[in-house]
Amino acid sequence: GAGVSQSPSNKVTEKGKDVELRCDPISGHTALYWYRQSLGQGLEFLIYFQGNSAPDKSGLPSDRFSAERTGGSVSTLTIQRTQQEDSAVYLCASSLARGGDYGYTFGSGTRLTVV
Amino acid sequence: KQEVTQIPAALSVPEGENLVLNCSFTDSAIYNLQWFRQDPGKGLTSLLLIQSSQREQTSGRLNASLDKSSGRSTLYIAASQPGDSATYLCAGGSQGNLIFGKGTKLSVKP
């Protein structure tokens, strides 16, 4: 597609349940990033994928969070045993490559509410 | 560790006014800088990207500059309009990841 697509746009889940968030990057973009934006806070880096390299997981807040990227394209962010503090907007971005002079294109995000 | 600060946190101006949003970063090793706009409940829209070899970029009524030596970037909005009301985020590219400021919430009154 022309842009970064995220689904679902909204997700309400009960505390303790697992959730999966999906990101479909721009075709040809090898770099894919997940960020989290909590209410009133800035964007927090979670994880990064570049081609077939091992992902940079340095931003994941706990081992309940994981992500994968299949075939160098679609990515899924999984949150296990969700907690109320996981409530946030989860944003995905893609770029032609990591670093360098390439801008990021963001999706519209998934608003996760844990009740 | 790179930190990005945006001042002011909020700004309210009358329509037609020219304004400047400020962004500062702690690590001068910043590679490039990107300004985004975020409307309530929406994702981020890229406004301007200043690449490593550049010092400013212009798009319509927007002009962004980058001074790595002082650790600052500014976003200039000319002849502001109510439709410019949004939160403006700056983000510095450093070692591959973008580090974001918390944004400036702009309100342009008709």
Structural summary, described in words:
- The complex is a heterodimer of chains A (115) and B (110).
- Chain A is mainly beta.
- Chain A has strands at residues 5-7, 10-13, 19-24, 31-37, 43-50, 65-69, 75-79, 88-95, 105-106, 110-114.
- In chain A, strands 2, 4, 5, 8, 9 and 10 form a 6-stranded mixed β-sheet that branches.
- In chain A, a hairpin with a 5-residue loop joins strand 6 (65-69) and strand 7 (75-79).
- Chain A is globular, with a radius of gyration of 13 Å.
- The relative contact order of chain A is 0.33.
- Chain B is mainly β and 110 residues long.
- In chain B, strands 2, 4, 5, 9, 10 and 11 form a 6-stranded mixed β-sheet that branches. Chain B has a 5-stranded antiparallel β-sheet with strand order 1-3-8-7-6, with no helix packed on it.
- Chain B is globular and about 40 Å long.
- The model of chain B has no long low-confidence stretch (mean pLDDT 92).
- Classes of the chains: A mainly beta (115), B mainly beta (110).
Low-confidence stretches of chain B: none
Beginning-to-end CA distance, first to last residue of chain B: 41 Å
Q: What share of residues are in beta strands of chain A? A: over 45%
What gyration radius of chain A follows from the Cα positions, in whole Å? 13 Å
